[in-house]
Amino acid sequence: MLRGIDPIIGPDLLYTLRAMGHGDEIAIVDANFPALAMAKRLIRMDGHDAVTVADAILSLMPLDRFAADETAIRMEVVGDPEAVPPVCTLFQDVVDRRDPGYKVVKLERFAFYERAKQSFAIVATGERRLYGNIILKMGVIDP
């Protein structure tokens, strides 16, 4: 155990977050997402929901202030692009609390898959709520 680090963040996720650089992205995905087929690096966190994992990650990782419209991205609902699933509202709440001023934007399902494939890593959670997927872009910490 380490002080100041959420205990759900295991060594693989901690290593991955530390290895990421400015502009790298990490996808946090639900239990239905084809994570193994898409990931360059896969971290499994099956016992946790995606909102809790996003909160833990954002307790350590700054969001990219230079790409404000693409800093936090969720998957758009198929057939209802204006819908905002409750889990996505919770993602926005986490972003507002951890790194205020950023809006979680939507991305069409297959475009989201392509973006996730390009992510530095994918974190597969046990999230059961549909559309419980978010991509976060790493920012910088000023000196």
Principal-axis shape equals: globular
User: Terminal Cα separation, in Å?
Assistant: 27 Å
Provide the CATH top-level class: Alpha Beta
Sequence of strands across the biggest β-sheet: 2-5-1-6-3-4
Structural class per helix/strand content? Answer: alpha/beta
Tell me the total number of β-strands.
6
Q: What's the tally of helices?
A: 5
Residue share in helices? Answer: 25-40%
Succession of helices and strands: HEHEHEHEHEE
Oligomer: single chain
Please name the fourth-level CATH homologous superfamily. Answer: RbsD-like domain
Examine the coordinates and then state which fold CATH places here, giving the name of the CATH topology. RbsD-like fold
Protein name: L-fucose mutarotase
Enzyme class: isomerase
Organism: Kaistia dalseonensis
Pfam family, one: RbsD_FucU
Describe the structure.
The chain has one domain (21-137): RbsD-like fold (3-Layer(aba) Sandwich), CATH 3.40.1650.10. The chain contains five helices and six strands; from the N terminus they run αβαβαβαβαββ. It has helices at 11-19, 35-38, 50-58, 86-98, 109-118, and strands spanning 25-29, 42-45, 72-75, 105-107, 121-125, 134-137. Strands 2-5-1-6-3-4 form a six-stranded mixed β-sheet. α4 links the parallel β3 (72-75) and β4 (105-107). One of its GO terms (molecular function) is L-fucose mutarotase activity. It catalyses: beta-D-ribopyranose = beta-D-ribofuranose; alpha-L-fucose = beta-L-fucose.
